[in-house]
Amino acid sequence: HPPPPPPPNPLLLVFPTPTPPPLNHPNCPTSLPSIANPLPLLSNSSLISSYPTTSAYGSSFSSSLSRLSSSSWLAPSISPIAAPTSLPILIIISSKTPLTFHPRRPLPLFHHPTTAPSELLDNCVELDPWHSRCRALSNDGFGSKATGLSGVIPEDLVPAWYWTDQFAMEIIYHNRILNYKCRTMEPDSATAFYIPFYAGLAVGKYLWFKYRWKDRDRYCEMILKWLQEQPHWNSSGGWDHFITMGRITWDFRRTKDEDWGSKCIYLPGMRNITRLLIERNPWDYFDVAVPYPTGFHPRSDSDVLEWQDFVRNHNRKTLFCFAGAPRDTIKNDFRSLLLRQCMNVSGLCRAVDCAGTRCSNGTSLVLEAFLDSEFCLQPRGDSFTRRSIFDCMVAGSIPVFFWHRTAYLQYQWFLPSDPKSYSVFIHRNELKNGTSIKSVLESYSKEEVKKIREKVIEYIPKLVYAKPKEGLESIKDAFDVAIEGALKRIKEQKQFGHKWK
């Protein structure tokens, strides 16, 4: 079972109450394009709107907010928001007091109206047992601006790059939802409800050391208890609600008290909620896998087009590359096998040894390797997926997979339906039995490689999260694809006779 993240608690943005938004925003679609169901076995889900109501928080919530001091990244300005009657999204903004910011506590914390444990006041310095999370969660979740990229990528695109943390997805989505063109302030007109709770950040530090299972479950139990007291929850049982959970699904699927993770997904109230995660359980319809955040956050359509052109024409000097660390404590470690094959074909493969923190945010080594290679090896990570998949594809390198669950059974909304059109698959057992990666990759002609790479480049916009809170001008990014996909599912569920796919 999988690994860990960073934590506070249910995030709720509080703003001055805005003027009721206009209806029928010209950019809010009244119908959505067909989006492949992420799980062909089952089919049913829910959600979108932002919770929190005025009386639900009690005095403890107000007093804790007063201790924060102004955060521009958590309090985007309110502009006219579209609320078409067909596919509106609801965000209830209930306080007249704007959020304030404290450098040691950049995330606003939501307190259950009857329970406000001191843990909810933990700041970003304490979200991780080893180091501060403040820098990683800054800039709307994009992290600190990338450095050391001059000469690696076009100079005018350097400002679009950040050292974004792989677990920052919840913050990125929250900020975008607050500015979504189809948001509405009227609960009764909402198609779906967004739950502003940072499940991944809340459980992060409790996955380690002395913490007990009760610590890992506390905040999820609190938010679900509160949700079940809300009228719009009770009218649907959660079918029209969704939540972002910025970690892999296995971090929320503890079956025994002594096992890893929280049991958030197994709590009764979570059963019908659509969950956007960076890795899903392929056999749970309500799990939807969305791309891990990468470092590229385009500021405009032109950024996307320029980047696509750059990676399309970049001179790739090596056949393939591998960025990762061997697991010496694991018998017959597969990553060690990949590294050995890479080392044995000197000049054709570039290896980036990520032992320790060498490949942590703040280095250009991995990006350079992907930019310089035709193919990039993508074994499973600590779980079946890894952020490296998206770093690789954004760099225009063709991914080579060894497990179907690394991508093919995960990101169906974001990747081509035909795996062969954008990737290479070599079963791991073939390598263990002596198959040469070099021989397999050299069997592709230049024209075949060019065709596959073009498909990778075509899908780059769906794999990145744009910098503007309102999204890009006309190009849809990963956030747009995820939200439209969730809305489509919810709308279909409400139709008479709808069956799970």
From TrEMBL:
An annotated GO cellular component: Golgi membrane
Localization, UniProt: Golgi apparatus membrane
Molecular function, one GO term: galactosyltransferase activity
A biological-process GO annotation: xyloglucan biosynthetic process
Primary site of residence: Golgi
Domain Exostosin GT47: 118-439
InterPro entries: Exostosin (IPR004263), Exostosin_GT47 (IPR040911)
Coiled coil: none
Keywords: Glycosyltransferase, Golgi apparatus, Signal-anchor, Transferase, Transmembrane
Membrane topology label: Single-pass type II membrane protein
Keyword Transferase: yes
Pfam families xrefs: Exostosin_GT47 (PF03016)
Family: Belongs to the glycosyltransferase 47 family.
Protein name in the entry: Exostosin GT47 domain-containing protein
Originating species: Gossypium tomentosum (Hawaiian cotton)
